[in-house]
Amino acid sequence: MSKLFKISNKAVKSVMAEQSTSSNVNITDAVLNQSPVIKDAENVTINYTQPPSTSSSDEDDWDAVGTIMKEHNRRLEKEGDFQFQGVSAKTEIPPVYPVISEITFFEKDKAPADEEYDPDDNKELYSNKIISQVQFQDLLKLESKFISIIGRAGSGKTVLSKKLTKAFSSSHRVCIHIKFMDMNNKQQLTLRKLFLDNMIPGQNEKVYENAFNWLKKNDEKLILVLDGFDQAEYTLDKKCSKINYDECVPEKQLIHNLFIKHLFPNSLLVVTSRPHAVLYLPEPARPQVTYALGDLSLKDTKKLFFAFADEDLWRKINTTSSQMLSMCRNPLMLQMIISSNIHPSEDIGDASTPTRLFATVMENLTYSHNFQSPETMGELARKLQVLAFDATNHGKVVLTAKELRDEGVDPTTIHDIVVQLHCHRRPINSRLLEGNTKFFFCHQTFQEHLTASYVVYGMPLEQFQDFVETSLFQDHWTVVRRFVCGLLFDLESKAVSGDIQMKQKILKKHLILQLAIISEKCMESSPDDKALTDKLLDLYACVGEGKASSIATKAAEHFPTTIHLPQPMNSNLVPGFCFVMKHVTKQLDELSLFLCHLDVNSFHEIASVIKEMKPGQIGQMDIDANLLQPSNIDDVIRLLRVVRYGLHMWDCFIDDDGRSRVANQDEINKIQSTLNKIQSRLKVYVDAGITLRSQK
C-alpha cells in the first residue's frame, strides 16, 4: 500500500540525527531509511510503499493453536487410558492413581533394579530415596520445571501422563502429549516439524506456522508431556550445540535442547520413562525433580478391577488364590489376571497360581497369528525362553537387537506385537517387548516365567541335574525356582515324556532335602533369624506353587516348633505358608505374626488354616501390630480354640485413617464370650491393662 508523506527538511535532519543515537525507530524512520532525502529542500515529498505484513495477529495464532489442540485432544481421547487384553470396561473408568513419591535419584549413578535383574519383584526400588509422597493434584501445581516420572513397566506411566495432559489443559494453557515411540525420526527436522507437523498431520501450512509462533511467544503457558523416553532410539551426548527454533537437526539434538531448557525455557517439561534411561542423562539435561510410581492402593485396585470385572470374580480370586489380588496392584498384572480368568486356557485350567496365570497368558499367545512374523507365536516363545534364561543367568533384563538376531528373532517384528486368540475369543492386544534398540519383557515376571519354561522344557536333562544341584536353590533364582516347581509338579497328573518325569524326581528330591536342612537350621538358631525364615518361606512358596501335597507333608514333618514370620511379611508368601500349615500335625510352641503388617485378606487366609488345626495345637501366638479390619474379629475368635496359653493382640487393628488401634469394646465382648464357652486356660492380651480369660 502506497502513502504520501510530506515533511520538512529540518524534520528529516532531526530524525536522522536521532537514528544515529537511538534504537527507537518509528514510521518516519522507516520511511527515511527506504527513500532518498533531498538536502536543502524546504519540504520533501516521498512516495512510500509499505511492505506486506508477514506476521500474524495474536488472534490468528491463538485460533491456530485451538485448531491444533482440538485434533490433538481428539486423538488422545481416541486412544483411551486403558487398553485391556481381551476385556472391555463395564463402567466408566474411575480416576485411579499409583502411589507417587518424590525421590532423590542421581546419587552415585548406581543403576536401578529395573535394568539389573532383581529376583524380588515386589520390593520397592526406591524405599531409601523417598523424600515425600505426593498426590496427583500436587503435580498440577508445578511451574517452569523439568520433571521426570519413572516407574517399572506396567506401573501406569502412560496412563498418568495422559491424565496429566487432560488436567493441565485449560482455556489459556496448552498441553501437548507425545510418545517417544511415535517419534524416533531418522531424518533431520525442525522442532515445529517434530511436535506439530508430524504429530498432528492434516493441517495447512498457515495453521502450523501460526500455532508455533504462539508457542514460542507464550512458552510460559506451554506444557510438554513426553511419554516413554526409554523407547527413544538414542542417548544424549554430554555436550550439546545450542540451536534456534527453526534449525533442521537430528531429533536427539532437538530433545537435548529441550532438556537443557534452551528451547521453550519457561515451559513445564514432563518426561516419563523407565528409571535406567533417565539415570544416564548428562548432568545439564537432568530433570530438576523426579517422581517414582509405586503400586495402586488397595482401594484404587478394587475400583479399577470392578470397572472391568464384577465382584464375583474378585471373590473367586480372593477365595482360590488371594496372592493374585496383591499382584493386581500393578495395572499391567491386573489386566492379565482379569483376562486369564475371563478367557481361561482350555489346557491349563483355573489360573489359581502365578505359574498357572503366566502359563495361561503364554498358552493364549501361542494361538495368536495376527503379528508381523513368518513363524508362529509358539516358535517365537521357544526362542524367547532361551533369551530369557541367558538374560536371567547373566543378571540383566535388557536384550539387544544383536542378541535377538543371534537367536533368530527379528527385532523389527517382535516390537509392538499385536496378537489374536482363538477366533471364538475376543482379540487381545499385547506388547511383549518394548523399545527398538534395547528390549525388555513387558514385566520382569514374564522373563522369569519364560526362564523357568526353558529350564523345564528346553534344558537338557544332564544340564538340568547340574543346574538343580548347584544353582536353582540360590537366592538369584528365587522366583524362577517357584515357576519351575509350579510347572513340573503341575505336570505330575499328566502324560509326560521320560525326561520330564526324571526332572520331576530330581527336583522333588532336592526340594525335600532343602526343606529338611533349612527347617533344622531354623530350629537350632534364634527364631528371629530373618534370613533363615525367609529362605524357609520361599521353599514353602515353591511347594504351594506346584500344589505338591506329598512334598507339603514332608515339609510339615520338619516344620519348626517355634517360628517368627518376617517383619513385614510379603503377602505373596502367605499362600505357600498356608499350604504347608494345612499338613502340620505336631504341637507348636509358638507362632508369631508380630509386626507382619498382614492385611485383611492375608490374615483371613492364615486364620482359616489355623482354625482347622487340633484344639490347643499352638502354645503361644502373637498377632500384635498388623493391619486388621473390623471384619477380622471373626478370624481372631477362630484362633481361640487352637491357642493353648497366650494370644497377644496389641494394636492389631487399624482405624479408618490407617492408624493402629486396640480392640474396641464390642470386639472385646465377642472375645470374652467365646472364651467363656470353650473353658480354656488361654489368656488374651488386648492391651497393657486388659487381659481376657475364661470366667468359668
From TrEMBL:
What span is annotated as the signal peptide, if there is one?
none
Q: Where in the cell is it found?
A: Cytoplasm
- PROSITE patterns with a match to the protein in the record: NACHT
Q: Organism's domain of life?
A: Eukaryota
Q: Which keywords are on file for this protein?
A: Cytoplasm, Repeat
The keyword RNA-binding is assigned to this record: no
Q: Tell me the InterPro entries matching this sequence.
A: NACHT_NTPase, NLRP_innate_immun_reg, P-loop_NTPase
Residue intervals of the NACHT domain? 145-279
Stated name of the protein? NACHT domain-containing protein
